[in-house]
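Memo to structure team: turn this sequence into structure tokens by end of day. - J.P.
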Amino acid sequence: MNILNLKSGELHLTEEILANIFLGQVTYWDDPTIQNINPHLKMPHLEIVGHISLWPLS
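Reply from structure team:
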């Protein structure tokens, strides 16, 4: 993740939030579930974008 002015370890995410990001249920950084556990941060309304690499199964 690369969000301007965010220092390493400053953002907190729970396992549930991470799962919901993976499932596409949390799609923006300013989602209330993220903002509620990070009240010290003002998260931008930016879409969460990631890359999943699949290893060859051979």
